[in-house]
Q: What sequence folds into this?
């Protein structure tokens, strides 16, 4: 059970790093605790096979590394639909305001057929002995110039280990010997986990009633429970959905209560058409044990993302910490995850 590099986490950083290392002739294993690949990229198939993103969704022209990777993998993109009237709720006591979004704004883009297509394309280069699901790493020990990795199922020996878990999750769920520097542990515990508190939801519909009524599907609200809402129809315009974010506090309610509150707001915004839906989906990322670890103190968005401690190698350049939170640029986005993988591959390949 030996390998050159063992990667913890089969999200975008972990899979892209494995893809680059394997192409360079380096043996890899990717160990993922969850039943699926992708991490915080999570496209689900709702009613009528309507794709809805529960995780990473949008990117812009400034995310050049992501765009180049999509071109390399031959994955097409399309522009986010924003045509028509948007709605803004400033106060609960006032009706929603109708707003015409400017036509010259910089567009956002989505990946055709779902963000998970990038995950499946990268993971397809790994065989079943290289990509291991439902296997949780519990301990990493540096001993005699090699690393011994213990999981809930077995153990491995590796020359290098890369964790792509959110730093806070890594330092609180995996025992590491010898202990890492106290300064690193302190920074990790104060590093924001991208999407860690987010409540994302999507609703599939038979028809795009909002488009038929000249609405863009875009909503911004100070009232809630919906804070942001967008059209989420597919590129062929054959599957229709609305998708957005709920207030973080909605995670304290049951799913039935969330559904009731969401549709009360949608009826107020769009009328009875909004109630004729196919399916409601949501994900509470704070409840995902392989993504988020609870904190007793408030951590600001992007706090300590890209910290210098994450750019170092530990145990004589045997253990590295990667993932979108560790990228000095675009931390907390898909672009940051890709930049982390690129940085790590350039650092590790010469060492081997």
A:
């Amino acid at each position: 059970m030996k390998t050159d590099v063992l990667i913890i986490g089969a999200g975008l950083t972990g899979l892209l790093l494995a893809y680059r290392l394997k192409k360079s002739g380096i043996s890899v294993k990717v160990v993922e605790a969850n039943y699926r690949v992708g991490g915080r990229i999570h496209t689900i198939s709702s009613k009528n096979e309507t794709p809805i993103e529960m995780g990473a969704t949008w990117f812009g022209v400034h995310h050049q590394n992501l765009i180049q990777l999509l071109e390399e993998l031959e994955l097409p993109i399309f522009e986010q639909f924003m045509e028509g009237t948007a709605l803004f709720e400033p106060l609960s006591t006032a009706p929603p305001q109708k707003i015409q979004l400017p036509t010259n704004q910089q567009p956002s883009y989505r990946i055709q057929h779902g963000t998970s297509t990038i995950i499946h394309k990268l993971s397809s280069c790994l065989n079943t002995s290289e990509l291991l699901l439902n296997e949780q790493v519990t301990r990493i020990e540096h001993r005699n110039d090699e690393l011994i990795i213990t999981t809930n199922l077995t153990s491995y020996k590796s020359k290098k280990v890369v964790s792509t878990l959110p730093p806070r999750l890594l330092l609180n769920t995996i025992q590491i010997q010898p202990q890492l520097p106290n300064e690193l542990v302190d920074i990790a515990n104060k590093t924001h986990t991208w999407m860690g508190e987010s409540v994302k939801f999507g609703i599939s519909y038979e028809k795009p009633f909002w488009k038929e009524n000249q609405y863009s599907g875009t909503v911004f609200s100070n009232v809630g429970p919906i804070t942001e809402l967008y059209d989420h129809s597919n590129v062929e315009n054959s599957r229709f959905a609305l998708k957005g974010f709920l207030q973080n506090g909605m995670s304290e309610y049951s799913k039935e209560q969330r559904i009731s509150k969401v549709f009360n707001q949608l009826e107020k915004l769009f009328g009875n058409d909004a109630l004729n839906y196919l399916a409601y989906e949501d994900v509470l990322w704070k409840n995902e044990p392989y993504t988020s670890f609870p904190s007793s103190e408030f951590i600001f968005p992007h706090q300590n993302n890209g910290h210098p401690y994450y750019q170092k190698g530990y145990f004589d350049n045997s253990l590295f910490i990667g993932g979108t939170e560790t990228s000095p640029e675009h931390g907390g986005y898909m672009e940051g995850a890709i930049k982390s993988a690129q940085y790590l591959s350039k650092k590790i390949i010469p060492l081997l």
Notes: The mean pLDDT is 96.
